[in-house]
Amino acid sequence: MQDTRLPVAANEGDRQHSWDGLADLKNRLAADQAADAAGILRHTGLHATPFEAAAAIAACQNDGLVDAANAVIHHTSQRSADEVMQVLQILLANADTGSAEQLLRIRLEKL
Fold this sequence. Notes:
Elements: H1 22-30, H2 34-47, H3 50-62, H4 66-76, H5 81-93, H6 97-109
Helix pairs in contact: 1-2, 2-3, 2-4, 3-4, 3-5, 4-6, 5-6
């Protein structure tokens, strides 16, 4: 079974919700490049690994980018059922029940 915990910094006790795309996303938003930012979120939700999608959701939420987190959740809901289940497992393993519930609700609406 794959480890579903998000990375923890060596000197910190709290989970580190890191995502490599966060800096690029914030730069695009700061530069008013909304279409590029939307593309990053769409790509992450649809094509990144389930772990990366869950990390992106957490990182955006922790950085106050709630709309960005919601966009990743929306795009993730369009993935295969197996991939959605993997993201749900990761979110729940990291106690992000709110995002997991939102992803599940959106996915079920698509059935």
